[in-house]
Amino acid sequence: MVALMTIHKLTAGNGYTYLTRQVAGGDVQRQRGQSAEEYYTQKGNPAGVWLGRGAPLLELDGTTVTEQQMKHLFGLGQHPDAQRIIAEHLAANVRADMDDEQLKAVQAAAIKAATLGRKYPEYEPLDPFAERVERRLAVIEKETRRTPSSAEIKKVQHEESRRQRAAVAGFDLVFAPVKSAAVLWALDERPEVRAAVRAAHEAARDAALELLEENAAYTRTGSTGQAQIDTKGLVAVAFDHFDSRAGDPNLHTHVVLANKIQGIDGKWRSLDARGLLAMTVATSEFYNSRFETELTARLGVTFEAREDSATKRQPVREIVGVPVEAITHFSSRRTEIEARYEQLLREYRREHGHDPSRGMTHQLARQANLDTREGKKAARSLEEMRADWTHTITTAHGPDIVQRVMAAVPAPESTPATARQEEPKPVEIPTLAAAVITAVGEERAVWTVWNLRAHAERLARSEHPTTSTAEHQQLVEAIVTEAISPTHSVRIDTPTLLDEPEELRRANGDSVFVQHASTRYTSTAILDAERRLVTAALTPVTEGPNPAFVGAALDGFEARNRALDEGQRALVTAFITDPRLVSLGLGPAGSGKTTAMQAYVHVANQAGQRVVPLATSAASAAVLAKDLKQPAENLHKFLWEYTGGKYMGELLSGRNVPESRAGFVLNPGDVVLVDEAGMAGTLNLDSLVKIADQRGATVRLLGDYRQLSSVEAGGALRLIAAEAGAVELTTLHRFSNKTEAAATLKIRTGDTAGLDFYFANQRVVSGSRTAMVEAAYDGWKTDMLAGRTTLISARTGTDVTALSARAREDRVAAGQVEADGVLLRDGNRAGRGDWIVTRKNDRKLTTNRGRDFLKNGDAWEILKRHEDGSLKVRHMEHRGRLTLPAEYVAANVQLLYASTITRSQGGTVDTAHPLVTDDTTREELYVQLTRARHTTTLYTATHELLPFDTDEQLDQPKNDPNSFAAREVLERVLSREGAQLSATETIRNAQEDAVSLATLVPRHQHATETLTAPYYHQLIHRLLGPALAEQITTDDAMTAVTRALRTAEAGGWQPERLIAAATWRGDLTTADSPAQALAWRLSTITNERPAPAHLNAPTTADTTRYAALVAQLTNLPAHRFDPETATAEPAALRIAPAAAQAADAHPHVPADTLNHYATAAATTLNTTTDRVTAHPQWPHLAGALAAAERTGRDTTNLLTAAASQATSTSDPVTALTRAARTTLAADGIPEHHQQAPEALRHQALAATVLGDEHATRARNENTWPALTAALRRAENAGHEPATLLRQAAESRPLTGADSLSQVLAWRIGRHLAADAPVAAAQQSDRAEAELWRTLAWSLKAIENTGTTAETALSEVTGRTALPELLQHTQQQVLAHTRAASGRADLPAWISAVPRSTTANPLHHEYLTDSATLIANRLSVLADRTVENRPEWSRTLGEAPTDPTQRAQWQQHLAVVAAYRDQYRVTDDNAIQPAGPYIEEGRTGHDAYWQATAAALAARRTAAAPVGPESSTGNTDQQARHQLTADVYRALPEADQAEILRTVATRTGATWLANIPRLDDAALAQPSVAEQVTAVLTERRQLTAEATQPEQPQAEERRQPTLAERRRAGRQAERQAHRDQLQQRGGQPTRAARPVPGRRPEPVEQRQAQAPVQRPAAPQQQFQQPPQARQDQRGPRIR
């Protein structure tokens, strides 16, 4: 193996146990009851130790690991010493007098104190995939009342397929030296040699860990993890091992990195594993180099490269002198055991009909050990292991094998080989860097520094070996530095659009928005090659035959062959007549490319053109030659002949060459035809085109970039198609089932709907990987026996090996193949009768009378097996024979019964049985699905049985049969593209991604959060005090608090005033999470009421100036406006005390308790509960019972006593209520402490204010919820609900109202929409000092916006009352602050720049620039949409001719395009302009509705007559839209559905028929609410008063002056005073507090007593109703 550091995920839960059960025990399970410590001591294996820079943070650095510590950290995500921390916390905080709830709270706090960030969830398999999808689709169907669209189904399936099963607890990194070093350590008899090997290993391991500390120790933060921040270091544990599961020598160390890491901000989060995974290969190569350098320095050994015959990858550098047989002896041991284990698994399944259990797999693994050899001893010390190893190898290879191994270490006095070199090679950094770039560029078009680092490590240790680690490190750094310089590399950076402030940078100066070491590079050579290919595809160089000639030639071809379809004729015509140097043809699998090529060659020959066919492999070239009936060659061989062959000079100059090279000659007019061109590398294609151009020939490329691509730097075909165009075949001929053909085309482009065909036709089988190998084989065998041509394929060589082994077993059992055989490179054996495939070209071994040679991919049958391991074989097509040498057989031969996907591309069979695993790519799946004419069955591995190697038993969901469904696996496969992009396309994509809203918006949001968080933290500490503030700011929910504050501030709220209002809703300290409670309150307040005027602190100088101005305007004495008094904090900014919830607040009573009260009352009165709960007095009775129970009284006794006192028989509920309340009042509970429960408070309020008749009528209407919603909003806005409801009822008669609840809701909503500040004329209890203080702070707020107080009050004329002056001032404040908040050019879901950032100009400028980038992107999206008119925009109308309307229409399109850009919506369907619906509660739901509303507005604007867009800003419209939303919510589902259909039909917005019911997010959009209002009005479901508001009289059309309003206010005060005197028997009282024992006179009685309409003044009074006194009550707690 090449990478000697491997990495595996470790899942939370019990995933860690393999470390304590087996790894810590040397891969041998301990005896029951034996601790790890005893096991280590007894058996000599070292205990695990804590490592990493993060270990000291936990006070564990260098200490021994315990099982309990492993459980806490890797099992639960807690501090390793969590048990001690929890015990200490409980000891310090538990008191003897605590109740159960308090104890639970302390225990929860103790666990939280011991948890590092978020606790790992316990592993529980998700519900089956089909059930999860069905549930979500049911939600969509319920919300939409329609069948989910195909786009929605695909979206849900895709999202569910990507859900994480279990938390990742860590990453197991296994460091192991090369096998020769392990053999030397195991067998050398000298202790100092063994110690040197181990010391070199440990030094290399520690150095590799330090490399990871420097480059992988990062974490992510932000809503989408968009910011990568510094940390305080990795936390790791290390366990040393001496042997493998097979019992062979295998010195290695498991270094397990915890997935918990402490950020630089002190918070524990997850490790950002992106960097760790990206640098795995580079770290492995670093370890290899460091080990080699360390061991060379210690022992003087040398290393040499040996080809890795098993993997055919990078050669392995082994110790010179260690015999190969010593290495292969132990390597083959593991291969044999694993093969036996797989065989036992298959046999178990065949015998029992199901997979073995987890316990049984352990038994089978032990059995495999015993069956192949003596087996691993259960308890061996290191010395016992060494004795066993020595015995086994000397038995197999003779007693001198140990001395031969030891001879690899030179004598101590000798000079190391690296030092004996007489003249060391000169170090030429540019040359080495160029070599690294060349090596990397041959593999990929784009690379990172880690790709370069891996190659630089290999190159440095092979070309310039050294005994100095520092020298080697300096060389590698120099090579990499030179390689990424502009001389060799071109950076593919996302453009730097903003210069982040220090707070958004890591310690090294990099932006947190840029992943460390993620910069991508390409080379000038690759970019130039791509540019030349595109240029060649655009450059005409010749004139071809005329189309008429081509048509006639094609007719001649069809006369002797099958008819061509239109696409094939078009492709042949284009290839023949196209004058360009390069022409491209694309064809999906099964589209008849071979037939088209045959026709093309025929026509070209008719036109006198010579065609030179090329393929991308020797085997493919042989197939191509057979298909075209003319010689074909391998592309690589063709290029080699022109660039390095013996006759390259002659070929390039056109001179004569030998007959053996005649096929490589290119003459002017010739055409080079490249088949499967998608598998050709970019540099090779470029070389070919240059040669063709030089020789006067042209090139025709045929392939499909959506199938398997080149293993070299690729992406050229896709680039050429995009830049120069291509002729594409569209008709599929291969498939007998046309529906299946259509499904493959969907799969080709990643459309998951293509999977539906295979599931609907039972073409998908699923189960464990082992079971699927069996099932695929059984299907293949059945078809083989039936005489069908069939194919069984898999992605990896491991699966192909398993499938081939299974086939060989049956053939051996059937007597078709000999049981014994020669050992092949994959662990299988092959003997006489077996079918094999050769895997390496060898032109020296010829067959078929010299007409063919040994090629990679050739199929053979074994005729004879020789004793030396060579094989006599016969070609399975042309029947030619040859003998394969033993060395070739061992390294380059495999069984043929199964095929890799790569080998299968281009083949056609009757049936196919592909094995699909979770690492398959879309292109590979597409190739697998398109090989068969008739039937393809997918065998989908959903999980794996426990592997033999315990190092791979880490990922619990991977081995859980209930974790994944076949659909999930296939969905994930389709989302994984494996084809390379060209460097040119990668650059373009990077540039587009950099400016997309998917990038800009998350960064803007995170920057806003980061830069405003300190301000909000300080604000909370200043307002709430250190104790409560500490609780809130250290809670994870603090992010929700800051997000709510930012959103509110963008909406015009003053954070100080908002926080103050939130504290009046109850004591935050009693909440389980004060931060969560505060966040909820902040959001609720801002959602239910508009932002009030800001209040800023004035200085004494300010208030002195204000006092003179106010005294002049009010004509009041100046001494009444004390400047010092005005500097005190107004009530609106005061924080509520801890017990802010007043005793008379409406209590929360559970529904079950209310039901119990109603049943008890009904039993007492001998009536039904329905009659009790329907009675207007029920809320008051429930309030009395709740007060009684709250104070420890027996409610049954209370009811019995009250019933005995009740006197009325006509209204028993009223009598019982009055008696109960009177009884409690006499017992010390006054009536104002008997408030109706929260759930019934509006019902009680209506009865009190409206009277029983009106209240009952309103409550029985189906729009009653609209009135309760309006009252709730009024209360949250600071109003007294009783006062506001009374004023709404009195403003106009209720007689004749079509819906009482709607009329009242409309009037209240109209008032709230006006958002008028408090009119103190209606608040006689408000102190003048408070009015003056609030006025002064309001004037300061105005001046802080740049307007002087004198200017703001210049419109005030005449003598003005102080309350009216305050009202005017607050209106001015609102106007100025709203003008300064928000940006009209940003979608509503994107946060504007908070005003609080103005305190730091750098931060404010950065965020402003960020918002400007987003606004610019919107403009670009709008222009693109208007210019290109994508399909999704087709239903949004055409651009209006009026410039104003056109701008409005384009802005609406920009909002829809912005949503699609940010949320990466790719579905281009006009039925759903905003894409698939997002369910409520999921990210993006509100933004989805805003985009949908914008689509509706765009269509309306396009269809509207010329004129300005109707305003939605006036108060009547706002109130009407709010009432519309409330009424719509209260309607039955059928009515809601009908209204939605009507809106969709009327507006032509067909997409509305595909969205759900209108939820809060939808109804909040004015354009949606406007349409619904119109439909409700037509259906007479909206009150006439709202749809036809009273027109103002002529004299009311002008706004009254302040003096007129003052006089009207005084009249209203006097009338109200008279009403109070009359109501209270002449005693003036406050209307806000009803007198115990006396009910206020209901409105209906007052209206009956005074039928004459009130004058206009009270109506004006209602339009600006009062607020509750916040200094006395504050907002109510709901």
UniProtKB/TrEMBL annotation:
Residues 1583-1592, 1645-1669 have a biased composition (Low complexity). Pfam families: AAA_30, TrwC. Residues 1594-1621 have a biased composition (Basic and acidic residues). Residues 12-394 form the TrwC relaxase domain. Signal peptide: none annotated. Residues 352-374, 1500-1519, 1583-1678 are annotated as: Disordered. Gene3D superfamilies: P-loop containing nucleotide triphosphate hydrolases. Residues 1509-1519 have a biased composition (Polar residues). NCBIfam families: MobF (NF041492). This is TrwC relaxase domain-containing protein.
